């Protein structure tokens, strides 16, 4: 009887030991696969990149300044980035492409937004191409035109055509709305519409407005007015202005891809030297699907959608 009791005791002891060993093994495996958690809305390591949804969340403060054509796009993407990365603060300021380039060169801004390439004396600026912008001619509806030939536009902005009836429109004086000398949009207009000639319209009917919104509003509210803006700005105005075709060509992404429509340019975001920290993370985010979708809504064209050879030769 005593022998049977001893056997039973040994069997129970063996079973208990097996359970302990099994439990210990299970605890060891759990510990190996457990990862630390952080509070929602914080960055795991301040100042370092943490992968989040295909882009990097980086804390810090940066400023992007320059092109008023690019400003709405960069501003919306910046707000989207900040909504995902609470430790980031991105300020987007206007001022024109030349100011953006000068700010980046001087270190006043981490990013200089520009519709045009940097100058030869700014060789230390690194180019980040983020979008294609389509520009259009807009006119007050009372001008009575829907299509403008390149020669018509040149005649108007060189002061040779002063009444819409000279080019098939209404018998109404033309009021020219231009852009300031610091504007990259003006530089693009000069290159592709004026064949590099300077604007010299009749001064009695010449107005200057800085931003796309200001030009649209001026053309809308001024009888016989004409101006040039982004396609997105014109679309937003709707029927308040007339967006003309140029040489019979629609301002569309398809016509940009073949260069049949000439009035467009590449949008650049310049940094002084290679980007790092929040600047790099934000520039990378400008090329994500999130940013491209915002650009689509503003009528920008995605850079990869325009053939490389078209982009490479456009400004030559």
Explain this structure to me?
This protein is an alpha/beta fold. The chain folds into two domains: 58-132 and 265-314, D-Maltodextrin-Binding Protein, domain 2 (3-Layer(aba) Sandwich), CATH 3.40.190.10; 134-257, Periplasmic binding protein-like II (D-Maltodextrin-Binding Protein, domain 2). It is built from eleven helices and 13 strands. The protein has helices at 2-33, 71-84, 97-106, 150-157, 184-192, 212-221, 231-237, 253-257, 277-285, 289-297, 308-314, and strands at 50-52, 55-57, 60-66, 88-93, 111-114, 125-139, 147-148, 175-178, 206-208, 225-230, 242-243, 245-246, 264-272. It is elongated and about 60 Å long.
């Amino acid at each position: 009887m005593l022998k049977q009791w001893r056997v039973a005791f040994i069997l129970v002891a063996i079973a208990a030991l097996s359970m302990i060993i099994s439990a210990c093994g299970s605890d060891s495996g759990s510990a190996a696969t457990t990862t630390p958690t952080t509070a929602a809305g914080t960055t795991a390591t301040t100042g370092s990149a943490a992968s989040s949804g295909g882009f990097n969340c980086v804390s810090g403060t940066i400023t992007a300044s320059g092109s008023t054509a690019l400003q709405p796009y960069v501003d919306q993407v910046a707000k989207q980035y900040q909504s995902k990365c609470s430790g980031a603060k991105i300020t987007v300021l206007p001022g024109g492409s030349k100011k953006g380039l000068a700010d980046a060169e001087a270190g006043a801004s981490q990013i200089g937004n520009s519709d045009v390439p940097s100058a030869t004396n700014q060789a230390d600026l690194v180019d980040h191409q983020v979008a294609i912008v389509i520009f259009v001619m807009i006119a007050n509806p009372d001008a009575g035109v829907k299509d403008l030939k390149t020669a018509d536009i040149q005649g108007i902005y060189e002061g040779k055509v002063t009444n819409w009836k000279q080019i098939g429109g209404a018998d109404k004086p033309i009021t020219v709305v231009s852009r300031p000398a610091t504007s990259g949009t003006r530089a693009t207009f000069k290159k592709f519409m004026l064949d590099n000639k300077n604007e010299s319209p009749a001064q009695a009917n010449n107005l200057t407005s800085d931003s796309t919104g200001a030009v649209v509003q001026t053309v809308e509210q001024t009888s016989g007015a004409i101006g040039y803006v982004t396609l997105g700005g014109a679309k937003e105005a709707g029927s308040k202005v007339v967006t003309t075709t140029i040489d019979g060509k629609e301002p569309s992404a398809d016509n940009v891809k073949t260069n049949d429509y000439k009035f467009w340019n590449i949008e650049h975001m310049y940094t002084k030297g290679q980007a790092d920290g929040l600047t790099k993370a934000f520039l990378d985010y400008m090329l994500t699907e999130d940013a491209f979708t915002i650009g689509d809504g503003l009528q920008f064209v995605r850079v990869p959608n325009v053939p490389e050879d078209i982009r490479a030769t456009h400004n030559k």
